[in-house]
Amino acid sequence: MDWYPWVVVAHVVGAFGFVAAHGVSMFVGFAIRRERDQARVAAMLDVSSMSLTGVYLSLLLLLATGIAGGFMGSYWDKAWIWISLATLIVLVVAMYPLGSGHYAKVRRAVGQKAYNDPKDTPPPDPLPPEQLAPLLASNRPFLLAGLGGAALLLIVALMEIKPF
C-alpha cells in the first residue's frame, strides 16, 4: 500500500487545523479593536487562548507529515520544500513576539495576567478607559493577518507549483 497520499491528506488536515485555530485568534484581534468593555475583551482573549492547543497540535501534525512527505516524495533536493519550511519557521519566529507581546499588554490592560507573568503575583489593575482605548485600537491585528496571509500564500504556491 502506498502511504504517501495518506500523509498528504494528513498534511492538508494539519494545515487546515492550523489555519482554523489561528482564525479564532485573528478574529478576536479584529473584534477587540471595537470593544471597550473590559470584561468582554478579557472573555474574548480567553477564547483566543483556548484555540492555542489546536494551533500547536495542528502545527505538530503539519510539520511531521510535511517532513515525512518530503522523504516519501524525495523532495529534499528541491529548493521549494526548503523555502516553504524556512518561510514557516521565519513566520513562527516573527509572529510569536509580534502577537503574544501585544496581547500580553492587552491582557494586563484589562486586569488579566499574561502568559509570562509569574504565577504567584496578583493580576494587574486594569487601565482606565482612556488608556485602554488606544491599545485596543492598535493596527497589530492587520500586521499579523497580512504577514500570516502572505506567508500562507507563498507556501501554498510553492507546494502546488513546485517551481524549483
Task: Give an account of the 3D structure.
This protein is mostly helical and 164 residues long. The protein has one domain (4-161). The chain is built from 6 helices and no strands. The protein has helices at 4-31, 38-50, 52-72, 79-109, 129-136, 140-161. Helix 4 (79-109) packs antiparallel against helix 6 (140-161). The radius of gyration is 19 Å and the shape is elongated. It starts with a helix and ends with a helix.
Q: Helical region count?
A: 6
Helix content: over 70%
Strand content: under 5%
Overall residue-averaged pLDDT value:
95
Question: From N to C, what is the helix and strand string?
Answer: HHHHHH
User: Pairing-aware structural class of the strands and helices?
Assistant: mainly alpha
Silhouette: elongated
Rg over CA atoms:
19 Å
The figure for the number of domains is 1
Q: Summarize the main sheet.
A: none
Amino- and carboxy-terminal Cα gap: 29 Å
Q: How many E strands?
A: 0
Q: Give start-end ranges of low-pLDDT stretches.
A: none
Notable traits:
164 residues, mainly alpha, 75% helix, 0% strand, elongated
Topology:
Blueprint: H1 4-31, H2 38-50, H3 52-72, H4 79-109, H5 129-136, H6 140-161
